[in-house]
Amino acid sequence: MSRTFRIAPSILSADFARLGEEVTSVISAGADIVHFDVMDNHYVPNLTVGPLVCNAIRPLTKAMIDVHLMVKPVDRIVGDFAKAGADIISFHPEASEHVDRTIGLIREHGCKAGLVFNPATSLNWLDHVIDKLDLVLIMSVNPGFGGQSFIPSALAKLTEARRRIEASGREVMLEVDGGIKVDNIAAAARAGADTFVAGSAIFGSGDYRGTIAAMRAELRVLG
User: Fold this and answer.
1) What are the strands of the beta sheet with 195-198, ordered from one edge?
2) Is 177 assigned a catalytic role?
3) Which residues share a beta bridge with 33?
4) Span 6-220: which CATH code?
5) CA atoms of 153 and 151, how far apart (whole Å)
6) Is 40 assigned a catalytic role?
7) Where do the domains of the chain lie?
8) pTM over 0.85
9) Which of 66, 75, 134, 177 is catalytic?
10) Active-site residue among 37, 66, 75, 194?
11) How far is CA 193 from CA 48, 140, 158, 177, in A?
12) Of 143, 122, 130, 133, which Cα lies nearest the Cα of 197?
């Protein structure tokens, strides 16, 4: 079955001194989605952006804003990001006392809901909630920092996640986040991913358009 591939640059690797310009530049260069990595220095050992930054970016682009919450507890901040203009809000099951309730809360606020799986987190959560999800995100690094190397075992996990999505019969995006570059994006796609978060590979390249084009060239033969 043909898949639509999406490139989602993570603003974690952007130049924060001119973040608005970075977002408009990367979308103009051919990206599909703006990916927000939200860290709280509690669930993960880093502190990044909050709803005010999302709110500031929202008027600058019509592209989908994909908010990845690495925060605990998660429910308190869902509404804030929804009001700030998020289109997708995803979270880690370990950060919620009641995963089904958190998914419901996201959807009640008018956003698509995603569930995120760390390298050592079982996909068994999907047995209970895949019928309510719009996105499954497989972490190919441990969360908390940008610029890490891709963990190869994520490929098998992507394949299993794709199998579960296909079995559900639903349209669910399968995103991969961590160490995605031009030289491994095709392997992630072959394993089942359709949405690719790339931070340093794009923002650190000095040529956003060229890098995104090279990624799409790798994906084109698989589409």
Assistant:
1) 6-9, 195-198, 173-177, 135-139, 112-117, 88-91, 64-70, 33-39
2) yes
3) 64
4) 3.20.20.70
5) 6
6) no
7) 6-220
8) yes
9) 177
10) 37
11) 26, 12, 6, 10
12) 143
